[in-house]
Fold this sequence. Notes:
four-stranded antiparallel β-sheet; seven-stranded parallel β-sheet; 2 domains; 15 helices; Aldehyde Dehydrogenase, Chain A, domain 2
Amino acid sequence: MIADPSPDLLARAAQVRRRAMFLGQLGDGQRRQAVRAMAAGLEQNRAAILAANQADLEAAAAEGLAPALVARLKLDGAKLDGAIAGVRQVAELADPLGRRQLHTELDQGLVLERVTVPLGVLGVIFEARPDAVMQIASLAIRSGNGALLKGGREARGSCAAILTALRQGLAASEVAPEALELLTSREESLGLLKLDGLVDLIIPRGSNELVRFIQDHTRIPVLGHADGICHLFVDRAADLQQALRLALDSKTQYPAACNAIETLLVDGAIAPAFLPLAIDAFAEAGVELRGDAASQTLGVGQGASEADWSTEYSDLILSVKVVADLEAALEHIARYGSRHTDAICTTDVAAADRFLAAVNSAGVYLNCSTRFADGYRYGFGAEVGISTQTLPPRGPVGLEGLVTYRYRLRGEGHIAADYVSGVRQFSHRSLPL
Amino acid sequence: MIADPSPDLLARAAQVRRRAMFLGQLGDGQRRQAVRAMAAGLEQNRAAILAANQADLEAAAAEGLAPALVARLKLDGAKLDGAIAGVRQVAELADPLGRRQLHTELDQGLVLERVTVPLGVLGVIFEARPDAVMQIASLAIRSGNGALLKGGREARGSCAAILTALRQGLAASEVAPEALELLTSREESLGLLKLDGLVDLIIPRGSNELVRFIQDHTRIPVLGHADGICHLFVDRAADLQQALRLALDSKTQYPAACNAIETLLVDGAIAPAFLPLAIDAFAEAGVELRGDAASQTLGVGQGASEADWSTEYSDLILSVKVVADLEAALEHIARYGSRHTDAICTTDVAAADRFLAAVNSAGVYLNCSTRFADGYRYGFGAEVGISTQTLPPRGPVGLEGLVTYRYRLRGEGHIAADYVSGVRQFSHRSLPL
């Protein structure tokens, strides 16, 4: 059971909400300027941020934090400059607000519009990644949303210095600094999960365990993915050299990414030709292969257990399975996949079409690496995160994932009774957007 | 604690999912024909359905079911014909699938598309409304989704007869009858809430209590609204006669609807002129008014308690509050509203713009009745339900609320490493939709 949020947290969240409601009504230029001011605030506080991060790093070293976590926690001058440049880029992104998605005359003088509006307030929970704080805070303000930000314990000093800088920046804009609020304790982090009505979307940026815990303990919608079990299927009609390039890139280009493959499926008809090549190439790349019986017969040294098909290694490990045909590959993906991103390598148009139609994932790819599943690579300019939920927003989510819409109906005294009685009829005429 | 779904329910849900995956790949014409076949199935089974409903009604009478519930349960010939006509209309609605929402060349030969696809499987929980079963089942099939349908206990016989008819109809189409499955017991209804991975969206059609219970007991997304606390604000610059018409229609045209108003807010500057007229008109319409102190001074007979501002009466009762000005009205709506639909009546353009920008509800109206918040009235042809959640789909939800999207990326051997190393650059060129 999670305790109710403290009165102090409720008051601060309500404050963020009030500021966000005001922010949400500002124009494009005002929000753009505010994000630029945030970048300026970071620049002015560069030394303080780096010093705070250094202190966090020293404390982490004293506590013996794992090297992978230390790498994420570390914010040197170059990384900070990159993050500030990222904030400036967010300022230049096209405004996601005020877009008219629907425009219909319901009857003479009765006109319906659907326009994009901010969600309201975001609750963002990071593990020890100070750069993500800058990115998400700038995306929040650009899209007219307030945010409650909770960084990992190890990054506490860094996050506080960054928030101070961002709020100093906002003070030189029309956005109230209190539209951004930092949460610092585990109690506040848990309290955030119960801020229904004050927080509209929770964005967890961290481990699968973190995301799952949050999904299980809040009624607020969660944008995130709990698993990235991605597949590459090498069809019998694949170009062998291309398949090899795709398999290597999809696994090794950045194995810790959620869009890296965990399982390689190989059509039985091509496995005897493909697997020996792949085994050599993966050995050279330092990838450990775990195969089913058929792929072991063809040279994969180590066996895969049932659990391997559902495991996100996030490491240089790859499970390998020889399947009878395309249909068997589709069955495997439907059973073990996490609906993130799955690819086929083939020169057979019918097989490609079947795969693209049948695989029920956010990303379904033909003859390219799964590593393209990313907001920047898709051309969104920045990414809030990747969602593996079925409902939109799905896949890599850009600024548009932080907005919703509202129906506006303008009449001249129109009442429903006139349409029920038949005195008036709806025209439902589409108007230009 | 809710028990895990039974092996039998799991097997049936998995069956629906398999059939739905096949259905989701059928073309527009095939799905359209299937919905027409469902209508034909209902016609062929007209007598059996009416007889089953008669039996349900007799059992309900014996159990002393409340008259309002009996009215919803009742399915006479005219109501059934209307429902069948509704199913035929769903067949004629434009296909929500296969719409390209985004089309970008990421680089030469690497092309990204975003296309609409079905959600997969819907879980629909009705109270005793047999007509809703036909409506939702047809919307599900039209949009390429399978469905698990659970009707209220009182409508058990009616629902079974309807499902038999719908599946008989589907047998004469390319859609497998097993894409629709009826759940009959309370255990199955609870088990449905735990079918994560097999069910993609739960649609509750019933009381606020039902919706809230479901939201609290499932990780599956829920499309629904738990409250409809709608407001009409009569601004100081309102046309008095228009305000009166809107207030009466918004409250009395169908008081049980979620889009009927529960609270009338009146600008203090116009209250002395407006309220006496309104009090007479509402008295004539049989509406009980409950007012704050200021409106009691102006003639409202009965007092409102704090709880009244948060109460959805769903009846001929209306709370009335005199507010200092537009800003005070906005504050009241922000505090007590349920973000469903709120309206202003005014001739002042600045006040109208302020209200339309500041009210954070799914529907924000100017000079028209809140009763227009409805999928049919918006021109969607049919309605899945009305959602008061903040994220899309929001407000009245048509067929497009039953679809999601998928990214398809087609390459020619493209790998991410080439873009990281700088050998290749993204073009991010928009292509025609």
